[in-house]
Amino acid sequence: MLIVNAVLETPDTVDFSFWPVADLPPYQLMALSGSMPPLDVGTALAMLADYNSRSGDDDCPLTDAGEAIRHLLETDKVIAPGGLRVHDTRTNVTVRPGCCCGLEDWREWLDIADGEPLWLGHDPSPRLEHADEAVQLWPDGADAQETPLGQPIEIMVADLPAILHTVQEELQGFLSLTKQWATRHVPTLAEDLVARLDEDLAISAPLPDSGGQHAT
Asked: How far apart are CA 199 and CA 90, in angstroms?
């Protein structure tokens, strides 16, 4: 059985005080979904706010939650360090997105069906190879000239639409919790925050159905 999650890197929250966050180790991966505890939602938004904080001559220390979220909304495009994490329960192999992979690009997995390559980050450097009607994923295949070590995860290309629909449902659940969180912590910015994350993380736009047609 394959478990595929939309994941986001956790931030270093030692000095973070704008809103409550979970006590999680930094630089790990947390799954986004509609079942996240409120503190985890706050942690995810702390990561997005910090990672997308603006720099420049007008940059000054932020003082409260409202300023932090406004800075997030003012960025050109919200980017989210993370991606899709794939776990095979039969073999206990997990493929995690590497450094510099972004959750905002999760829909690029759709291109696999057309035989396109997929960049999944580096250090580690997950590797994907096409094999007939399936693709094989290795946790780390940094040297493309050599056969990756270890056991790959195999995904049937025909299963990808259903897998990505599940990922989309998880992200929609996270978006719903974000609205609840924002209504409590930054009520005047709640609608703008949800709309911005929905657009920049490509959450609600229709996905192809199992027959390759866009859902309506």
From this structure: 35
Per-residue pLDDT tens digits for 132-153? 899 999 998 765 556 666 789 9
Report whether 104 contacts 15 (CB < 8 A).
no
Given a contact cutoff of 8 angstroms between Cβ atoms, the answer to whether 42 and 17 are in contact is: no
Q: Which of 35, 18, 145, 31 is nearest to 87 (CA)?
A: 31
Residue at 49: amino acid letter: A
Q: Residues 156-194: pLDDT tens digits?
A: 999 999 999 999 999 999 999 999 999 999 999 999 999
Tell me how far apart the 2 most distant CA atoms of the chain are, in Å. Answer: 55
Per-residue pLDDT tens digits for 15-69 = 999 999 999 999 999 999 999 999 999 999 999 999 998 554 456 677 899 999 9
For the entire predicted model, the pTM comes to: 0.91
- The DSSP H or E segment spanning 195 is helix 190-200
Alpha-carbon dihedral sign for residues 201, 74, 68, 82: positive
Q: Classify the phi-psi angles of 123: left when phi > 0, otherwise alpha if psi is within -120 to 50, otherwise beta.
A: left
- Contact between 164 and 110 under an 8 Å Cβ cutoff? The reply is yes
Give yes or no for a contact between 108 and 127, defined as CB atoms under 8 angstroms apart.
Answer: no
Residue for token pair 């030692």: 14
Which amino acid would we find at residue 157? V
> Among 13, 37, 9, 24, which residue's Cα sits nearest to residue 177?
37
